[in-house]
Structure prediction request, 356 residues.
Amino acid sequence: MRRDSDRLPVNGSLAVQTGDESLAAERCVEIYRLMVRARVLEERMIKMSKSGEAYFWVGGPGEEAFNVCLGLQVKKGQGPQYDYMHFHYRSSAVMLALGMPMLDAVRQMAMTATDPHSMGRNFVGHFAVKEWNVVPVSSVIEVQYTMAPGTALMQKRCEGNGLTIVTGGDAGTAEGDFTSCMIWSARPGNEVPVLMVVTNNQWGISTPLASQHAEHHVVARAESFGIKAETVDGNDPVASWHAIERAMKHCRTRRHPFLLEAMVSRLYGHSSSSGAVRAKDEVDCIAAFEKRLLSKGILDRPATESIVDAAREEAEAAVAQAMKEPRPTVDDVLKHTYAPSEVDAVYPVDYTGLPK
Ligand SMILES: Cc1ncc(C[n+]2csc(CCOP(=O)(O)OP(=O)(O)O)c2C)c(N)n1
Prediction:
């Protein structure tokens, strides 16, 4: 039976600690709940991909600790005074932390016309929210890194303290786009506030990081551009929270770039194309954090179970709702495209015979 996990009593004097850094109990519970919701959402979407309710799945199980901490610290809003976000396809936990309902992720997975990110036309995890400065996610990896200095330059010109956040995986950093981002963010006298995040799971689909990169850590490349950088254990929410806070403070106040490399897990392989099978030999950030919360007495077992139950109910309700909603039709093909009229005039498309 569902209990109201939002009203769990939290002892305000408790905290979770990593080294000298700590997070208060209330913040820990907020982070834990979002991490659980993100994992349950992704696991339900993996089930959709295997059951015929949907097709391709890609997402972020294993990145929840870092991504929730990132989402909770974003200055959310529309326009240059707020943060711009150029994400990759593993950012569902950031989006939930920003306030996206599970239903909107499920709608994209189910390719419904109600999907607010792409009207059912893009892959799952390809978010786009104009009101929150979430720039459309690209399937072509790394192009987001070349776009990021553009929004950051505009933010610098507009003054204020908005910054640009760009995320991607470790393999993608081999693309020239990653270097372009460092060059354009760090031009002497023209530095711009880009927070470059690399979530390093040590894989590029099936290629191990160690077989491609001689440098020990991605952050090693920052030094040659004079970019401040840090590597953090992205499986630890306490360490992640503080590293993100430091990096954001640098970008907001100095108006300079920062490179933050978060070491994370990849708990269900690359995507449904590689089977989406649970990895047993990688750290599970939720299990690890839960253990710390239980041992500190911040949550007890019934409380963690109630959080998981509530998340599962939410995910089931989202899937049930999305499956009832309409799919896009042929008449929708040219809606929300940049230049439908010109393209249509030059290359007229015959839609007769296609299913409505
Ligand atoms: C330009 C480009 N090349 C190749 C691909 C195919 N591809 C999709 S994801 C991926 C691996 C990316 O690995 P990484 O950047 O480490 O991110 P991860 O998926 O591990 O989070 C590749 C090669 C692509 N989408 N775009």
